Amino acid sequence: MLASGLLLVSVLAFLVILVLMSVWKQRKLSGKMPPGPTPLPFIGNYLQLNTAQMYNSLMKISKRYGPVFTVHLGPRRRIVVLWGQEAVKEALVDQAEEFSGRGEQATFDSFFEGYGLVFSSGERAKQLRRFSIATLRDFGMGKRGVEERILEEAGYLLEALQKTNGALIDPTFYLSRAVSNVMSSIVFGDRFDYEDQEFLSLLRMMLETFQFTASSTGQLYEMFSSVMKRLPGPQQQAYKGLKALEDFIAKKVEQHQSTLDPNSPRDFIDSFLIRMQEEKDPNTEFFMKNLVLTTLNLFAAGTETISTTLRYGFLLLMKHPDVEAKVHEEIDRVIGRNRQPKYEDRTKMPYTEAVIHEIQRFGDVIPMGVPRRVTKDTKFRDFLIPKGTDVFPVLGSVLKDSKFFSNPKDFNPKHFLDGNMQFKKNDAFVPFSLGKRYCFGEGLARMELFLFLTIILQNFRFRSSQAPQDIDVSPQLVGFGTLPPNYTMSFLSR
Predict the structure, then answer these.
(1) 360 CB neighbour count, 10 Å cutoff
(2) Three-state secondary structure call for residue 196
(3) What is the pLDDT of residue 271?
(4) pLDDT at position 13
(5) Higher pLDDT, 366 or 30
(6) Number of helices (H) and strands (E), helices first, in the chain?
(7) Which residues does the annotation say bind heme (predicted)?
(8) In sequence order, which residues have a C-beta less than 8 Å from that of residue 431 and are 6 or more positions away?
(9) DSSP per position, 65-82
(10) What confidence tens digit (pLDDT) does each residue in 126-143 have?
């Protein structure tokens, strides 16, 4: 009994010492690092962070500690969080170089390991980004423009929707097939048939991985990945999905290698392969692993974010039939029913532009932003953030900043309309992020959202199985990503 009592006292004393050391370390840094809740040994700030409501947890902490604060995810990750338009802009724009590193996103980091376009840093990120921007410009805006690609794909989508004959359907994979085919034509040089089972399997894997990052388990993985990556669970399924996508793209690259004409690149993969052949620098970033994983970055990012935004948009329009009716009216007045919309039409369609912006703002598809990392010891406001510290620029807190949006929790296109019902820009509209690591696919995304939405609404009206007042537009999941609730709808010919 005495021995067991002494053991218990020893264990308790050890735990008290750990807590005191943690508090001392936190206080030692308090004059330098932004403030935040005191972390506990092993679990960090787990008790203050509800993994099912991560955004709301961070919002609660921001109300106590201000727009720049520190949280600890698990035993090893110290994160500086930026909350609201002023803090995010000040960091990502005014101090763009210092905040240009790529921070950890556990689900993807364990797979990409710093390779590829999105999850790399330093010289690798700069070289791959410059090459990707130039190459996508060549194949997106060159002899066969991206608008033509989108309009062609919209024709296939309309045909598929007409075949539903007004039945209730889940629009998820109708939208993801169309959106993904636009990027597929740029990176692979061709589109997929909508009935291609391998294509559908790839889309399911991308959606499942995105769902995992938005889930409570996905947020738990952000805190305890060093342990969870060795355990069974949905994190293993997410990894398998990414591996299957990598294998598919590696197979595509092999096919391209066997038919490559160095004088006539057909797509992104060809252009990268040619650059690999031309490269003389032994320290080049143009090698096979970067090719495969950069292509995976473009294929996945060019699919999930836009298709999820459209899916959320359709639900919001069924919830607000008055908004849908006004968009129909503007389409009929500016475009009519007898020609396809053009991207240039948007300049004459302020209400539709406002609706699309409000869908993006309300949908808030990447609420946490892709994590950044400071590239050197950085003086920010009254704080000193050590080199290598990860930063969460919470884009959702900008898109819902009450200083810029009168009713940020409500869906209201007037957030982007002036007193004359003309479209007005808003400095807090940042769904594509800011600074040196902003999403360079913004132009393509804007064009897809406008053309797909207007073409569909030109031809169909939406019907839900529920009355508008009964439709719940609250997100199903909010983590790294935001996912709308599952729903069915009818596309009724106009």
Answers:
(1) 23
(2) coil
(3) 96
(4) 56
(5) 366
(6) 16, 11
(7) 439
(8) 360, 361, 364, 365, 366, 395, 399
(9) H-SEEEEEETTTEEEEEE
(10) 999 999 999 988 876 444
The pLDDT assigned to 143 comes to 43
Cα separation, 294 vs 281, whole angstroms: 20
Task: Please compute the mean of the pLDDT values over residues 256-284 and round it to a whole number.
Answer: 94
Which residue, among 368, 423, 380, 374, has the nearest Cα to 83 in the 3D structure? 368
- Pick from 417, 313, 415: nearest CA to 365: 313
Long-range contacts from 111-120, C-beta under 8 angstroms, 24+ separation:
111/239, 111/242, 111/243, 111/246, 112/293, 115/289, 115/290, 115/293, 116/289, 116/290, 116/292, 116/293, 116/294, 116/296, 116/297, 117/293, 117/294, 117/297, 117/298, 118/297, 118/301, 118/370, 119/297
Give the pair of three-digit tokens for residue 156.
Answer: 């296939």
8 Å CB contact between 272 and 286: yes
The domain ranges of the chain are 33-493
Question: What is residue 118's predicted lDDT score, i.e. its pLDDT?
Answer: 95
What is the C-alpha separation between 305 and 46, in angstroms, rounded? 28
Say how many CA atoms lie within 13 Å of 458 toward its Cβ: 21
Task: State the pLDDT at residue 302.
Answer: 87
Residue 352, exposed/middle/buried by CB under 10 A (0-12, 13-18, 19+)? buried
CA gap 233, 119 in Å, rounded = 24
Token pair listed for 59: 């919002």
Please state, in angstroms and rounded to a whole number, the distance separating the CA atoms of residues 153 and 186. Answer: 13
Distance CA 366, CA 59 (A): 16
CB 452 within 8 A of CB 152: no
- At 248-257, the pLDDT tens digits run 999 999 999 9
109/370 Cα distance (integer angstroms): 12
How large is the average pLDDT for residues 312-340? 97
288-319 and 172-187 helices, crossing angle to 10°: 150
Reported pTM: 0.91
pLDDT per position as a tens digit, 447-457: 999 999 999 99
Looking at CATH, the fold of the domain delimited by 33-493 is given as: Cytochrome p450 (1.10.630)
Q: Tell whether residue 354 is among the known ligand binding residues.
A: no
**Do residues 37 and 81 touch, judged by C-beta distance below 8 A?**
no
Instruction: Give the ranges where 188-334 is alpha helix by DSSP (H).
Output: 197-214, 216-228, 234-258, 268-278, 288-319, 321-334
DSSP class of residue 92?
Answer: I
What are the DSSP E strand ranges found in 14-118? 68-73, 77-82, 101-102
For residues 367 and 428, give the distance between their C-alpha atoms in angstroms, rounded to a whole number. Answer: 13
Question: Is 80 exceeded by the pLDDT of residue 205?
Answer: yes
| Burial class (CB within 10 angstroms; exposed 0-12, middle 13-18, buried 19+) of 31 | exposed
